[in-house]
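Morning run. Coffee first, then this:
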Amino acid sequence: MTNKRSLFNEATRVQMPALVHLTRIGYTYFGKISEDMSGSVFDPDTNILIRIFKEQFAKLNPDHAGEAEAMLRTIRQELDNDDIGESFYKRLKAISPVRLIDFEHPENNTYHCTAEFTCKRDEDEFRPDITLFVNGLPLVFIEVKKPNNIGGMVAEAERMNKQRFPNKKFRRFINITQLMLFSNNMEYDAMGGIVPIQGVFYCTGSKSYSPFNCFREENPLNYSVAPYNRDYLYADVDPEIEKKILSDFNNQVIHTSPEYQTNLRETTPTNRVITSMCSPERLLFLIKYGITYYHKTKEREDGSIEQIDQKHIMRYQQFFAAMIVRQRISEGITSGIIWHTQGSGKTALSYHLSYVLTDYFSSINKVTKFYFIVDRLDLMKQAKEEFEARGLVVKTANSRSELMEQFRTNQSQEGTTGEPEITVVNIQRFEERQDKVVLPAYATNLQRVFIIDEAHRGMQGRDASKATTIMQKFIKGSDTDKIPPMPVVIGMSATTQRFNALVEGTSSTIHKAVVTADEVRASGLLKDRIVITYPEEESVNNDMAILQAAADDWKQKWEHWTQYCFEQHYAYVNPIMIVQVLNGSGSKLTDTDLDDCLRKIEERTGFKFEPGQVVHTFGQTTSAIQV
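And here it is:
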C-alpha cells in the first residue's frame, strides 16, 4: 500500500503542479539536468544552458554570432565580482553593442524551466526546487514548501539570509539570479501577528540580508480571481509533457489523484503569483525596470563610516504603479496622482518611473527631462541623496532663477556624463519674488515630466479652483505669470483631497491610482496595530490595565525597530510613549497617579528611567514635577 504521507509532500503538492503550470504560460520544460551533463549541456560555473545561450545570442546579434563563447567567458568573470551581480545586470539590460535579451519583443526570447538543478561550487551546493531560464540564463528560482510547514516562510527567509547569501561559494549563482520566489501554497496569513508569514513571497539577491515581500495582483474591484490571472491566455497542458515531468521526478502515480489535480489549477496561491510575476511580459518588465543597486556611505554614531551596498527589487505596489503610469500616458492622460503611505517608497518609485518613461517616450521619438518637486529644503536634500544612491545624476533648483535657467536650455540633460538625470526642485521660496515666470516653447522632441512629492501640499489655505501658489501654477498653468500647464504631472500623497480638487478643474485627462487602507495593512507596510483588552475583574483598574498593555506594546516596538534599523542600516528609531492623563481637580495638576503610572511602565518593560527620559507637557507649569 502506498504511504500517503510520502506520496503527498512539497514536491507533489506544490513543485510538480507549479512546473506543469509554467508550461501553460510560455515556458518549455527543458528536462531533468544531471551532474554528468556539466560542460556539455550547462556551464557548471554559472548554470547557463550552453546550446540555448549560443543559439539565442546568434539570433539577437547576427553581426556578432561568433562571439558567444567569448561572452560566456566574460559573464563568468563578471559573476565572480563581489558586487551583488551589478556588472552582470548592466550587461543583461544593455542593447549595445550586443543584447542578451530582447526586452521590447518578448517573443524573440526563449523561456525554459526545470527542477532540482544543483548550484555547486567545490563541496558547497544548494538545489532550487524550480529554475527558470531566459535565453539559457538562469534568472529566476522558486523554492516551495508544503502548506503549514514548520516555521512558515520565516524559516525559508532565515535559510536564505543566514546560509546562502553570505556563502561566497554561491556568489555566481546569487549574482545571476534576479528574482527568487518562495511559497508554501497558502493564502497570506500573519498567524496572529502583523506581517504575513504564510503565503508566497519574493526577493532578489543580497550579500547578507534581503527582505521577503508579499505580492498581491492588481484587483481594484475585488473579484474572486484578479482579472490578470482570470483572463490570461493559458495554453493547454500537453499530456506528454506533463507525463515527462512527473516521470523525471518519479511522481507518475499522482497524475490522477484529486489532490494533484486541485493543486494544478491556475488559481492556487503559487500558480497565481507565478503567472503574475513570471509570465514573459511581466518578468521582462520586472527585470528591466524593477531592480535597483543602492550605494551609500553613512556615518555611525561612533564616528566611523559605513558603506551600504544593496540590491533592491520593486514592491508590488511600485510594480503596478509604474505599469499603470506608462499605460495611462500612452492613452493620452497627462496628469494623475499616486496615493502613498509615509515611508512606502515614493523616491524609489520615482527612480523606476524615470527609466520606464524614458523608454516609453523614446519609442515615440521624444527625449525626457524629469523634475522631482518638493517644498522643503530637508526634503530636497533627502531626495537628492536617495536618487544619487540609486545611480541617478541629480541637478537641483532651489530658486526660481535656477529653474528658469534650466527651462531655457531645452535640453534633456544638464550635465555631460550621458548618465540618466533628474532635477530636484525646492519651491519653498519661489513665491518670495513676484516677477513673471516666462517659459520658452517646448522643443518638439523634449518631454518634461514633473513628479510632485506630497502633492497635497501647496493647496491649503487657498481656493483650490484657482492657481495661486507656485505648486498650483505648475499644475494648472497661469496666464498672469505666463506659465503653461505642465504636460505630464505625477502626484504622490497620502492626503489627496486638495490635489484632487485642484486637478479636477483642468483640461488634463486624469487617472487616479489609489491604494486602499486595507491593501496597505495587508501589504505589511503598516507596522502598528493596537489591541486593547479590558480585564473582567472589577478589582483591576481598567486604565492601568490598558497602560500595562501599552507598555508591553511599546517595549515590543523598541525591539522590532532596533532589529529593523540594524538589518536595513538605518539610523536608529527610538519610539516615544505618550501617556494622556486625567485633568486635575482643585490645586492638583492631574488626578492620575503619576508615580503609579511610571512604576507600572518600568515593571512591564524592565526599563529603569533615567533623569531626562520622562518629561511632561502640563501647560500650567514649566517647572519639574516630583513623582
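The chain has a mean pLDDT of 83. Good start to the day.
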